Amino acid sequence: MSRAFTREEDSENAIAGIGERPVSEHRNLVTENGLAMIDAALGALREELGAAEREGNRERIALVSRDLRYWASRRETAELSVPEADSDVVRFGMRVTIEDEDGNARTWKIVGEDEADPAQGMISHASPMAAALFGKGVGEAATVNGKEWEITELKVG
């Protein structure tokens, strides 16, 4: 067997074994920004797929096709959720400022799973912190991992 044939066979096995991207079992709630992010990802991946097809790059076609299936599924199941402007309790899409007993404050925006980026102050609605905050208002406390946080401010958007 030649080396070229072995490499091609290995490449085919790698393509076949890429699997699907896991999809969360949680509701696919999205903010307006999250919905725009999904649409942008779909557009970019469609362009990338076209380029991969023109090049005949089978591995890239397989990877991009998998990602397209994921984002198409997320777009299909997306539920746009915008909090009511006069809400006085924590809801999806709101910015919540919390403070611990040492006076350390953090502000989180509660967003969809695909939009979540804790380093940028955005946490998933499925996270333990968001779950602990939902339905609570300013002055109420939420406990996460044994640490108590008081809600000090709520903002829509």
- What order do the strands of the largest sheet run in, or round the barrel if closed? 5-4-3-7-6
Q: Strand percentage, roughly?
A: 15-25%
Strand-pairing-aware structural class: alpha/beta
Radius of gyration: 21 Å
Query: Helix count?
Result: 4
How many DSSP-defined strands?
A: 7
Gap from first CA to last CA: 62 Å
Characterize the overall form. Answer: elongated
- Biggest sheet: strands, sense, closure? 5 strands, mixed
Uncertain regions: pLDDT < 50 for 5+ in a row? 1-13
Mean pLDDT: 91
Can you walk through the features of this model?
With 157 residues, the protein is of the alpha/beta class. The chain is 41% helix and 22% strand. It is built from 4 helices and 7 strands. The strands form 2 sheets. The protein has a 5-stranded mixed beta sheet with strand order 5-4-3-7-6. A hairpin with a 4-residue loop joins β3 and β4. α1 packs parallel to α3 and α2 packs antiparallel against α3. The longest helix is centred in the N-terminal third of the chain and has 24 residues. The N terminus is likely disordered.
